[in-house]
Design goal:
two-stranded antiparallel ribbon; 22 helices; 63% helix; Cat_transpt; monoatomic cation transmembrane transporter activity; transmembrane; ion transport; Trk-type K+ transporter membrane component
């Protein structure tokens, strides 16, 4: 009886509502495509310019056509939860799929192009391209630009351009794990956008001043602010001056902080960052990862060392900091080949990538707030063993009492994350790949980190490329939204009237 009662209360997503929101999203993507098209034209990349121009025109035309659907007034629509989740998932799918044909200008197959665009828009950074120094610079800009607006969050951009009601906008933002602290979701999205643009300008100016060539500085800046990791060199950060590596590493760390916090600095001072428990956890986790990598280098002097045994401690410390920040912020920049690291060092990086950065930031992973939730639950369980049974205790994070729905959500996401990880890893093992490199690649994809042991490439089996594409998308929209998209009752059930 209970099951029948639940089914009676369910409402399917209204296709015309979803289509109308996606129509505006298509037009937004069309406008975003004009910038790389202009860059391609300026750099003399005719074929790429033509492809991007056609895609931009097609997206805008299709968007205008869908907006003419009768009976949908987005000014007055009350968005359902499943509709918000479906739009979030479709936003990333659409963004990745729309750039496949332009990405094929690199001479790669459609599946490889989809992996590249999915990696870009999810800010993962895994790539099938090799010898990127010889690739069309306009194509490299397209990848970096996709990472930039993917890091900003298509869901947040959708809120700013589509939503009109606070409740609906709140739902759409919260599907990406962000927290609303202001009275208006549209104001929240505007604040995030302004902070993101300012960080991007700072990153560009600092990378350029640190000795990076102007165009390369632009590509590195876009990728670092998005915590994306695409670089205009196969060796990632390794060819850059030490000052440039330090600058970009700092930018990655700044981008992994909850972005709306920066808007409160003028009125509350820099202390507002330190008072945030998640920011303190980010700094502690980054420091711990760095120290562990450094200790492994000191301990393992010899064959299989986590870093080159001939490396002095100052150089090893530099690599440890760069890799520690890259993993914790899920950026994916590297100063060393992952195959040069010991298994212990790779495990440290996997754990760091899994945890990720702060909510409301460009970073991926499970997010630190969920780790804090789990730690508080363990702490609460231990405290209960030492007090009376009738005592009332509450778990708190950042001074706020943890509500049951937040605890349930964290545990659900952790369960889904682990299930996806094990299934993906099993598929890699079934193809005969070594356990540790396979696990590293899967963790990097789901956490949207981008560090790679070299398995991702054009020669990887098509089925495993599809696994990585799915992992990146599931990881970026936090799994539930993708499951809702493919859940039959989302589309097959009675619908509310418009």
């Amino acid at each position: 009886m209970a099951e029948h009662a639940v089914q009676a209360l369910m409402h399917a997503a209204r296709v015309r509502v979803v289509a109308a929101m996606l129509a505006q999203l298509m037009m937004m993507l069309g406008l975003l495509t004009l910038l790389p098209a202009g860059v391609a034209l300026g750099l003399g990349s005719g074929p790429l310019y033509q492809r991007l121009g056609f895609v931009a025109l097609a997206l805008c035309a299709l968007g205008l056509l869908l907006l003419r659907l009768p009976g949908v007034d987005l000014q007055r629509i009350d968005l359902q939860w499943n509709e918000a989740l479906a739009v979030t998932a479709l936003a990333f799918l659409l963004a990745a799929a729309s750039m496949v044909w332009p990405m094929m200008a690199a001479g790669i197959s459609p599946l490889d192009a989809l992996l590249e665009t999915a990696s870009a828009v999810t800010t993962t950074g895994l790539t099938v391209l090799r010898g990127v120094e010889e690739i069309d610079p306009a194509l490299l800009f397209l990848r970096a630009w996709m990472q930039w607006y993917g890091g900003l969050g298509i869901a947040v951009l959708t809120v700013a351009l589509i939503m009109r009601h606070h409740a609906s906008a709140r739902r759409l933002i919260e599907t990406t794990g962000e927290r609303l602290s202001s009275a208006s979701a549209r104001q929240h999205a505007r604040t995030v956008f302004i902070v993101y643009v300012l960080l991007s300008g700072l990153a560009l100016a600092a990378a350029w001043a640190a000795g990076t060539a102007p165009f390369d500085a632009l590509l590195y800046a876009l990728a670092s602010v998005a915590t994306g990791g695409f670089a205009p060199a196969d060796a990632s950060l390794a060819p850059l001056p030490v000052a440039a590596v330090a600058v970009l590493t700092t930018v990655c760390l700044l981008s992994a902080v909850t972005l709306p916090l920066y808007a409160r600095i003028p009125s509350q001072g820099l202390g507002v960052l330190w008072r945030d428990e998640e920011v303190r956890a980010l700094l502690a986790a980054t420091l711990l990862t760095t120290l562990l990598l450094m200790l492994l280098w000191i301990w393992q002097q010899g064959p299989g060392a986590s870093m080159s045994p001939g490396m002095d401690w100052q150089t090893a410390l530099g690599h440890s900091v760069a890799l520690g920040v890259s993993a914790q912020t899920t950026t994916g920049f590297s100063t060393l080949e992952m195959t040069a690291l010991s298994p212990a060092a790779q495990l440290v990086l996997m754990l760091s990538m899994t945890i990720g950065g702060c909510t409301g930031s460009a970073a991926g992973g499970l997010k630190l707030v969920r780790l804090l939730v789990l730690l508080r639950l363990v702490q609460l369980a231990l405290r209960r063993t030492a007090i009376g049974e009738r005592a009332v205790l509450h778990a708190r994070v950042d001074g706020h009492i943890l509500q049951p729905d937040m605890i349930t959500g964290a545990l659900q996401l952790l369960s889904l994350w682990l299930a996806l990880l094990l299934l993906s890893w099993l598929l890699f093992l079934s193809y005969g790949y070594a356990p540790l490199p396979s696990l590293f690649e899967v963790v990097s994809a789901i956490a949207n980190a981008g560090l790679s042991t070299g398995l991702t490439g054009t020669d990887l089996e098509p089925a495993l490329k599809a696994v990585l594409i799915g992992d990146m998308l599931f990881g970026r929209v936090e799994i539930l939204a993708m499951l809702v998209l493919f859940y039959p009752p989302t589309w097959i059930a009675r619908r509310r009237k418009l």
